[in-house]
Predict the 3D structure of the following.
Amino acid sequence: MNKITSLFNIQYPIIQGGMIWNSGWRLASAVSNAGGLGLIGAGSMYPDVLVEHIQKCQSATDKPFGVNLPLMYPAIEEHIESIIKLGVKIVFTSAGSPKKWTSTLQKEGIKVVHVVSSSKFALKSQEAGVDAIVAEGFEAGGHNGIEETTTLCLIPDVASQIDIPILAAGGIATGKQMLAAMILGADGVQIGSRFAATHEASSHDLYKEQIVKAKEGDTQLSLKELAPVRLLKNEFWNQIQEAYERCATTGELQKLLGRGRAKKGMFEGNLVEGEIEFGQSSALIHEIKSVQEVINDLMREYQESLNHKPFI
């Protein structure tokens, strides 16, 4: 047992990222059943859809699971009402200040974890009273920190300044990386892309196959004027680069992005015009596997690496 397994009452300190268009009840329940902590990604769900996924997850597992909740979600009050009403006991928050909702959730017996990309916001989250934080380096897929701090640098910096449990995220897909993050001061890891490339993820098979095909350098942080996001270099990404070359305004970039671009790419499988989000760890992912296989691989490599003492 460590701080994270004790906090969530789980077997392994492995948290599945609450990724939009990937993290439905099947993925979340599979991760929880395999000994980690599964998260339902509420950011791509209407309120009634979130209710359905929570209820199905409760039917599929008797283990702890949580909901990932972007704080800038338009119908956040409805999401929070459903989370409380349905008895969800763990919430991961992101994309906003944790001050507004943390105490409300904790009064209902809910553990609150906030995602940050810098030590500055880690300290603010601790001051807001969260139970733990996710320190996410810019290797991560999806929306990201504008600071572009790597996980290797972020984790020890955050660990030296806060007292609450820390989960490392960003570019982690193997047991060796998990061990490295914990040596640097993390109490566990949150993993996104590796779980996106599983049979249980709700994303399109073409998207999953693209994760497996991706090589080093195939993704890049972009659209910092709107909200920094790591994207696959596809046709849509090329359109963004062309817009930058002609010095497009923020409004023009917003118009180019439009609505539903991430759904088109990750859920509908349009690899040309869609917004394809995944992290740099994709270069280390070579096969679509089951969640159980992924967790088995992570823990086997973690233990083998822990037992290997090359300098002793």
